[in-house]
């Protein structure tokens, strides 16, 4: 899965986000109404798609969706 | 691996008891309406039952047990009472002994507590079936539940809207020759800080300052005697451990997962259970829920789900069930067992 697909699929998971809002450089924690529930949605999404589990540290260290993607790719190597 | 099998146990009845008082997520003041919507979508929790201040978990279990004892008229023949809870009546004595007397059971009755949360029903079944399997004890009451709302603070949005109160009673009998129950039980104490009430017990004995409310971050204020929960840690733990535990149990017990009629998972969070379900490739019809109506009811969530969602199936059919409990500790475990014509009931405490 490339970064564009990753971003698009993640956007679908955040049902309340307008389609086309997210880009790889979006600071995902600044999306409208961000809460701890979004973090759980990201973890479940990554687990389902990549069979790898992001922890709190991973999410803390990632600012943008690209950062998240890179962490996931690194973890699945 | 703590894999074990027990023989000669059969579930006769399950009754769950919840308080009448309802609290709805849509009425919870510490999160906005958008957050409420996302919370419901993610956790599945629309409403929960909350007990009055003077009602304990043992009161809920007492009513559930009463219902069963009346139905089966078997108070005189109960040999074993186990109370699984993290909200006992007192530091001491053990609540199971109090319930033995309150339920009018014989003094020739073995009674003790087990201190476990979300995994407690499965662990309780393992202890009961081990004690019954020789046939020296014939009938057991497994009383399981929690009054979690005593330890959560209304001003803590990370815990308060998650938990509901519930108690349950399960009547189990010795019957020679019924199919074995298979368990896979696991523990990892390195997760102890992920769900903890840190103060007010032996490690940090009670001090008046534990009553003071402290703001941890916006929307999360609590005192030291309140429950602390790290949702992300628990989520990670559950995604990592529950699926493999179930797969390994199926493999060890030589059970084809397609032969399991229902997978009854602890009701902590709908997103966790759906993630586990999809990974295990289980059809959604085989994974019942009660979380939307009752929230996370700790160790009572499995019997409550059985009474709420599977009443007809349990009463009328012969079923192969997989029950899986996971959470505080961390402690987790699953059991595969057979059931046939189980009396089930769901009652309310006034």
Indicate the overall shape of chain A: globular
The general outline of chain B is globular
Q: What summary fits the major beta sheet of chain B? A: 6 strands, mixed
User: Low-confidence stretches of chain B at least 5 residues in length (pLDDT < 50)?
Assistant: none
Could you tell me the CATH topology label of chain B: Peroxisomal Thiolase, Chain A, domain 1
Secondary-structure-derived class of chain B? alpha/beta
Q: Taking all residues together, what is the mean pLDDT of chain B?
A: 96
Order of adjacent strands in the largest pleated sheet of chain B = 6-5-7-8-2-17
Separate helix tally of chain A: 4
Strand elements of chain A, count: 0
Which pair of chains has the greatest number of interface residues, and how are they split between the two chains?
A-B, 19 and 26 residues
| N- to C-terminal distance of chain B | 44 Å
Structural class of chain A: mainly alpha
How many beta-strand runs of chain B?
A: 17
CA gyration radius of chain A, whole angstroms: 11 Å
> Which consecutive residue ranges of chain A, at least 5 long each, have pLDDT under 50?
none
Instruction: Please name the fourth-level CATH homologous superfamily of chain B.
Output: Thiolase/Chalcone synthase
Radius of gyration of chain B: 19 Å
State the separation between the terminal residues of chain A, measured CA to CA: 13 Å
- In N-to-C order, the SSE pattern of chain B is EEEHEHEHEHEEEEEEEHEHHHHEEE
């Amino acid at each position: 899965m490339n970064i564009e697909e990753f971003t698009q699929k993640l956007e679908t998971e955040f049902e309340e986000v307008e389609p086309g809002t997210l880009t790889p450089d979006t600071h995902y924690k600044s999306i409208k109404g961000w809460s701890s529930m979004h973090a759980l949605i990201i973890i479940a999404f990554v687990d389902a798609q990549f069979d790898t589990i992001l922890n709190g540290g991973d999410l803390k260290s990632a600012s943008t969706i690209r950062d998240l993607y890179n962490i996931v790719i690194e973890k699945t190597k | 691996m703590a894999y074990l099998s027990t023989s000669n146990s059969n579930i006769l009845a399950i009754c769950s008891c919840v308080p009448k008082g309802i609290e709805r997520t849509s009425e919870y003041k510490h999160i906005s309406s958008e957050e409420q919507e996302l919370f419901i979508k993610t956790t599945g929790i629309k409403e929960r039952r909350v007990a009055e201040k003077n009602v304990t978990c043992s009161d809920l279990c007492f009513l559930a047990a009463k219902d069963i004892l009346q139905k089966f008229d078997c108070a005189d023949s109960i040999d074993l009472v186990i109370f699984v809870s993290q909200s006992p009546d007192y530091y001491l004595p053990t609540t199971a002994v109090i319930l033995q007397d309150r339920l009018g059971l014989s003094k020739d009755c073995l009674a003790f507590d087990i201190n476990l949360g979300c995994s407690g029903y499965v662990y309780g079944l393992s202890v009961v079936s081990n004690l019954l399997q020789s046939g020296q004890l014939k009938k057991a009451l497994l009383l399981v539940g929690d009054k979690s709302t005593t330890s959560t603070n209304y001003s803590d949005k990370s815990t308060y809207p998650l938990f509901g109160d519930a108690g349950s009673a399960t009547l189990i009998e010795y019957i020679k020759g019924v199919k074995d129950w298979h368990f896979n039980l696991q523990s990892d104490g390195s997760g102890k800080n992920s769900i903890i009430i840190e103060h007010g017990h032996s490690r940090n004995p009670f001090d008046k300052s534990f009553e003071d409310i402290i703001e941890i971050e916006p929307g999360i204020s609590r005192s030291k005697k309140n429950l602390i929960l790290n949702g992300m840690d628990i989520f990670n733990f559950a995604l990592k451990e529950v699926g493999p535990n179930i797969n390994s149990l199926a493999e060890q017990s030589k059970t084809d997962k397609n032969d399991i009629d229902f997978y009854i998972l602890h009701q902590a969070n709908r997103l966790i259970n759906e993630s586990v379900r999809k990974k295990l490739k289980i059809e959604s019809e085989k994974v019942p829920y009660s979380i939307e109506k009752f929230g996370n009811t700790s160790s009572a969530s499995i019997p409550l789900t059985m009474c709420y969602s599977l009443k007809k199936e349990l009463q009328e059919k012969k079923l192969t069930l997989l029950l899986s409990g996971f959470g505080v500790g961390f402690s987790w475990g699953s059991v595969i067992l057979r059931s046939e014509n189980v009396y089930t009931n769901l009652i309310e405490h006034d």
